[in-house]
Amino acid sequence: MIVLKSKDELGIMREAGRIVAECHARIAERIAPGVTTLELDALVEAHIRARGAVPSFKGHQGFPASICSAPNDVICHGFPGSNPLREGDVVSIDLGALYKGYHGDSAWTYAVGRPQPALAALMAHGEESLRLGIAQAEAGRRVGDIGHAIDAFARAHGHGNVRQFTGHGVGRELWEEPSVPHYGRPGSGPRLKSGMVLAIEPMLTLGGDEAFVDEDGWTARTLDGSICVQYEHTVAITEDGPVVLTTL
Fold it and tell me: What are the protein's UniProt keywords (predicted)?
């Protein structure tokens, strides 16, 4: 069931999103060669709790940490670890905050040091694909319009577009209906209505679309070992257009 949020609920979700955005700002300041994703996890958890919220991911279906860490060929759902990040790596950090009963959810990809040109282009295209998807998140359109905009842009630039994992609704639950694939036919899927809140999170690669999950049951990687980036915002559908909740 798709749950529509009231104006008051969207206000709470805006604050949850702001906490998430503050965490990403802190990560951007801290990330560098030699830093570990376990350090970033501790940084995020401390900030979320200091703001009167709870990490959305920690304990969710047994997940052990406050962030999902996805370096290089990892797509999503990776555990933070003690291996130092290296110059030239890219790492996607996905995190959420539960505030007054509502979640905010956002992921961003960070370069460690200066990225190679191909990686810099992939990152720019990943961020732009998210922007294009958000632009389609208007009342009266359909979920397929979001996915089509993302996929068409990814294909036009020669990138893989992971299909195994999708965006989703967000609210009192971290994952709600509807699913939001990052591909689709225009005019297909559930109709978008004012009050819906969606996590839109394209995952683009330098190679193919296919993925597999490690033996830990969580960490998803590209099948061909190509690098993946992920960009995600929590977005409210309103009568005045899409509103990104996970920003400062």
Answer: Aminopeptidase, Hydrolase, Metal-binding, Protease
Any binding-site annotation on 77? yes
Whether this prediction's pTM lies above 0.90 is answered by yes
DSSP characters over 45-75: HHHHHHTT-EESSTTGGG--SSEEEEETTEE
Would you say 201 is a known binding-site residue? yes
Residue ranges of alpha helices (H) inside the chain are: 7-30, 37-50, 117-135, 143-156
Any binding-site annotation on 239? no
CATH 3.20.20.300 is held by the domain 7-244: no
Please answer whether residues 235 and 183 qualify as being in contact, where contact means their C-beta atoms are separated by less than 8 angstroms: no
pLDDT for res 84: 98
Give the residue-averaged pLDDT of 131-142.
98
User: Domain-by-domain residue ranges, the chain?
Assistant: 7-244
- Terminal alpha carbon distance of the chain: 30
Q: Would you state the pLDDT for residue 223?
A: 98
CB 198 within 8 A of CB 157: no
63-79 per-position pLDDT tens digit: 999 999 999 999 999 99
pLDDT score of 164: 96
